[in-house]
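Progress narrative, work stream C.
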Amino acid sequence: TYEKICRYIAREGELVVVSVGYRLAPEHKYPAAYEDCLNATIHFMKNIEHYGVDPANVIVCGDSAGGNLAAAVSQTLAGRSDLPKLRAQILIYPGLQALDFNLPSYQQNRGVPVLFREHVTFFALHYLSGHALHVQEVLEGSHIPPDMRLKYLKWVSPD
């Protein structure tokens, strides 16, 4: 589904674009997609000369679940001294947290196709566990113990 946009980005930006066809949920739950993206990125970076790419200009990018994967790969590679440093990460409406599906961004986009809160929750659960049996609990926020919610409140809150 992304071949045309990747070709456009490569052509218009005069860039090399590597698009990873990672394994999808629910057949392949976490961490399959993450491992695929991480392994592909490491392989690319270890063989960067073969692709004619300047090691100082490597960027990872993703949208939605791919944004989550790009962020996770970036964090994993940040401490690696055996690979070139990533120049940037581009995250397009990334799924970055599953603590609270009632934050302002979810409320503001609750009626936007593709970003329906129920759909996001459904797909997040499929990604993590391979099923979506607890959608209602997640939407209500009862999937997180109160002490954990308090612990992460300074990072994940409407404020």
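Work stream C, second folded protein:
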Amino acid sequence: FSGPFTDVVTTNLKLRNPSDRKVCFKVKTTAPRRYCVRPNSGIIDPGSSVIVSVMLQPFDYDPNEKSKHKFMVQTTYAPPNISDMEAVWKEAKPDELMDSKLRCVFEMPNENDKLNDIDASKSAPVLNTSKQDGPMPKPHSVSLNDTETRKLVEECKRLQAEIMKLTDENRHLRDEGLRLRKVAHSDKSGSPTALALRDNGSNSLPSLLVVIAAIFIGFFLGKFIL
């Protein structure tokens, strides 16, 4: 019997007569007040079968309590002329009776089965609510992203201006170096002053470029990493 047991639970019992004679049957239970059996007795023709409905009455189910209810299906061959069924059972000898015992088992449906039984119309509002609640923090996060983007754009523009400024300074220094080299080449006297100017002009240009490049790279990386 499958719960819940708040209403009548019905289980069908199929009895089949495999013999070539008529068989009388009777269904008994150890808890007659808890069950309603229809039909509880009758005759089964040879090779035929009959369905017996066993109806369990509502009760308070306790999963920790083991069921002690049992059923017994008692059968005997029917006499040639049957006029009184009660007389057949009273007059039957013990060695002519056959019986089959069945134990009752109570089961509650699984949680998955309960979830499958939920109405789809009831679950729809829950899904709609989750969809409405989910995107709520999005406007705040979008505004933050826009602010960060604007800051990065402004920072890029400022860095581009710095790059252009450093490029102009580099070009100016390069022109100055070329001018000093021309002066050095044009000085035919070979005086120590001309040689000093030539050496200072050629050595100062790479050192200054290295320092400017290091400052620019450190500033650029520091801004974007921090």
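Helices lie at 85-91, 111-116, 120-133, 138-186, 192-225. No further action is required on this item.
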